[in-house]
Automatic annotation (TrEMBL), chains A, B:
<dbReference type="GO" id="GO:0016705">
    <property type="term" value="F:oxidoreductase activity, acting on paired donors, with incorporation or reduction of molecular oxygen"/>
</dbReference>
<feature type="domain" description="Luciferase-like">
    <location>
        <begin position="31"/>
        <end position="291"/>
    </location>
</feature>
<keyword id="KW-0288">FMN</keyword>
<feature type="binding site">
    <location>
        <position position="97"/>
    </location>
    <ligand>
        <name>FMN</name>
    </ligand>
</feature>
<dbReference type="InterPro" id="IPR016215">
    <property type="entry name" value="NTA_MOA"/>
</dbReference>
<comment type="similarity">
    <text>Belongs to the NtaA/SnaA/DszA monooxygenase family.</text>
</comment>
<dbReference type="InterPro" id="IPR011251">
    <property type="entry name" value="Luciferase-like_dom"/>
</dbReference>
<dbReference type="InterPro" id="IPR051260">
    <property type="entry name" value="Diverse_substr_monoxygenases"/>
</dbReference>
<keyword id="KW-0503">Monooxygenase</keyword>
<feature type="binding site">
    <location>
        <position position="150"/>
    </location>
    <ligand>
        <name>FMN</name>
    </ligand>
</feature>
<dbReference type="InterPro" id="IPR036661">
    <property type="entry name" value="Luciferase-like_sf"/>
</dbReference>
<dbReference type="GO" id="GO:0004497">
    <property type="term" value="F:monooxygenase activity"/>
</dbReference>
<feature type="binding site">
    <location>
        <position position="59"/>
    </location>
    <ligand>
        <name>FMN</name>
    </ligand>
</feature>
<keyword id="KW-0560">Oxidoreductase</keyword>
<keyword id="KW-0285">Flavoprotein</keyword>
<protein>
    <submittedName>
        <fullName>Nitrilotriacetate monooxygenase</fullName>
    </submittedName>
</protein>
<dbReference type="Pfam" id="PF00296">
    <property type="entry name" value="Bac_luciferase"/>
</dbReference>
């Protein structure tokens, strides 16, 4: 088999507005998008037109932000949103986060597998352990130790996968004439008993067209790498630069090999944000406008930017609409703790105003390209040709038009350059990710 | 307010086939209906055309039957099925069972409230404690004592309702110009700590158009009556005859009054099954055909029928296609333990063949009318005018055509007789059930 040379794209959906703080206030955006499932369905349809491999809905079961200036960070309910999308799309994959800590394995297994069957094999489960204290409190828990959370995660994934495999592939006979709905000899309990979770099974759901949902992973650290290497076919990673992407991918591949798997069977998707304009100036202006909605946030952002380059910066002592004064610029250095620092420093040295340096997204969680579609494509090409990731989890600034801009402007460039497929490879998420069929638990496959 | 004089109708959906054992084998039925959500959506649309107040999906998280001859008794996933229905209907209520034992209150609160918001206020939660050992085993539990299960149920419902009310009704400001998404002073934690469950909250979901989902209850016994009287606005009951319906409804109303509520605010829906034909003979023939698919089941049904009337009956000693021999008929008597016995005895005495007595559904869980639409309407009218129930939870024998038959043939008769509404009273389930608005926990309303 020749090595796959095309990148893969996941569209990261959050609360329905896009990732930026003030996306909900942008003209055109439905301010009540949070409660209107149409927004998910429409964005997913556009992404499917753009041949995205999947949409991905991140989730934490808690309110974690101040809803005064900003929207919730997560959907009302990820599975209901994906169900709506499933019925109105044909090919695009449907991935959601569900916590291994705050859900019984049987309930996870059931709802994901049901959606996988309904969508004809397009579902993925991003299994996370959740360390958010607000989430734990919603379940009457405290955040457990990392060790315990990961021990629970292993049990959860193993039980879920075993439940998924509790019907043998040919158990569903559907013989109306002979009166045999299923072959009960081929539907067996799993009888798994762990320290934290147990389940008898079977799960009363037949195999989907891809067997069972695809496992994704998103956490970091040694425990996260182990979980990914052992079970995951897809990993959402958050490297800020090429070098950290390379390191993370190598660690993932090594972990997969350690568990006897082919490293090519674990695909990494690097988080990436964009703001597209007809010119670079327009892309930047879009982000300036987003910033302008919340002037109250600017002082803390300026101070944060300062800390990234070794300065104490305050809106009271510098004019943010001008470049950093030369005497301050002289004293800057990139923080070795923050991979975003070199980029911030580079832009400051180019003489951009402090406001514009911020508008370029240097303090964002993911790398940001604010500019033209060609610049966005160039960025993705550079990373992809450096062979540091299998694809990207792209996060629109404003979902309302950002998804369409990417699909209409960036995707054709990537396709022309031979970097992205022009048609879905198959009907299931596994086929479109290029990962092998799996049925039942990893141990028994 | 004058007393409501029209009955209410709930369509009970089970696995997608209808309630009868062999429904999946009937010509016209999609044998794979279990995995095809279209079946739920189509049936719900027909029920909405018939102005049904709600569809109701019962559930137990376990495989409880032998899938050799029969289909699963429950859907792959009730919430996903209701989500599909929500997007393709406008008025009909959407009720699903969720166990208070096998779900964290936060997860119940979240998914039901999200669906309630998405459906614009049409959702109900049938809160049950679940005593099925197979279900408990799927969660690594054993069936707890009745006392403990109900104690958990009280905590669960109180936490869920409090989470539902954690946004004050006017908290969602959505002020794009002023940049105020919500008023955080009006979104508060609930901080409930029980013996079994706890949750901090708030739930990040605004009020729905009916405030929050409607609570339903379905269990029996003193504990069930208490739960219903304290929290429920709707109760699915299973009386077999008018007298037991009257007793159950009186007990429900008394329980509501004991908790300081208006007894009229708790609506009872009596389970009812039907098989409709152009003539009584055709209705019966439909049920004979259903029985004929599973000749293996007949010996045990005959023996069961015998036990209901004080006889040891065997297919080896009687001809089931003939009436019960006179010498046996003489010795029959109605079992005082089984409210279905008088009806069985009556039909045997009328000289029906044993097969036809069974075809009339005398050993079914709910009362059955096999006959014409007029006979079905007569049955419903008799119960309703006896003032022993607020409505019916009707269970089609075969969903494929049974729902349409009821809507096209029975509903117009009920409407002509002034027994059933011709138009929805409002947009929300509460409005269409005629129960008051509630927001937050029962204690704080």
């Amino acid at each position: 088999m020749t090595k796959r040379k095309e990148m893969q794209l996941a569209l990261q959906m959050v609360s329905g507005y896009g990732a930026e703080f003030s996306a909900w206030r942008m003209p055109g955006t439905d301010p009540a998008a949070y409660t209107n499932t149409d927004n998910y369905v429409e964005r997913a349809k556009i992404a499917e037109k753009g041949k995205f491999q999947m949409i991905f809905i991140a989730d934490t079961p808690a309110l974690t932000v101040d809803l005064g200036p900003q929207t919730p960070s997560f959907p009302m309910d990820p599975m209901l949103a994906l169900m709506a999308v499933a019925r109105e799309t044909e090919h695009i994959g449907l991935v959601a986060t569900h916590s291994t800590t705050f859900n019984y394995p049987y309930n996870i297994a059931r709802q994901f597998k049901a959606l996988d069957v309904i969508s004809r094999g397009r579902v993925g489960w991003n299994a996370v352990t959740s360390s958010t204290p607000e989430a734990a409190a919603n379940f009457g828990m405290q955040v457990a130790s990392r060790k315990e959370r990961y021990a629970k995660a292993h049990e959860s994934i193993q039980i879920v996968q075993s439940l998924w495999g509790s019907w043998q592939p040919d158990a569903w006979t559907l013989d109306t004439e002979g009166g045999k709905f299923a072959d009960m000899d081929k539907i067996q309990p799993i009888n798994l008993q762990g320290q934290y979770y147990a389940s008898r099974g079977p799960l009363p759901i037949p195999p989907s067209e891809q067997g069972q949902p695809v496992i994704f992973q998103a956490g970091g650290g040694a425990e996260g790498l182990e979980l990914a290497g052992r079970y995951a076919s897809g990993v959402y990673a958050n490297p800020y630069d090429i070098e950290s992407a390379r390191q993370h991918r190598q660690a993932l591949r090594k972990s997969a090999a350690r568990f006897g798997r082919n490293p090519d069977d674990v695909k990494m998707y690097a988080g990436f944000m964009f703001s597209i304009g007809a010119t670079e100036e327009e892309g930047l202006e879009r982000r300036r406008q987003l910033m302008s909605f919340n002037p109250d946030e600017i002082p803390s952002r300026v101070s944060y930017l300062g800390s990234m380059v070794g300065l104490r910066l305050s809106v009271h002592t510098v004019d943010i609409d001008r470049p950093l004064p030369a005497e301050l610029l002289e004293r800057t250095y990139a923080s070795p703790q923050d991979p975003r620092s070199p980029r911030a420093l580079q832009l400051l040295k180019q003489g951009l105003s402090i406001r514009d340096v911020l508008a370029h997204g240097v303090i964002n969680y993911h790398p940001v390209v604010a500019g033209t579609a060609v610049q966005v494509a160039d960025f993705l090409e550079e990373w992809f040709l450096a062979d540091v990731t299998d694809g990207f989890s792209v996060v629109p600034d404003i979902a309302y038009d950002g998804v369409a801009d990417f699909v209409e402007q960036v995707v054709p460039i990537l396709q022309e350059r031979g970097l992205f497929h022009k048609e879905y490879e198959g009907n299931t998420l596994r086929e479109n990710m290029g990962v092998p069929y799996q049925y039942g638990s990893a141990e028994t496959k």
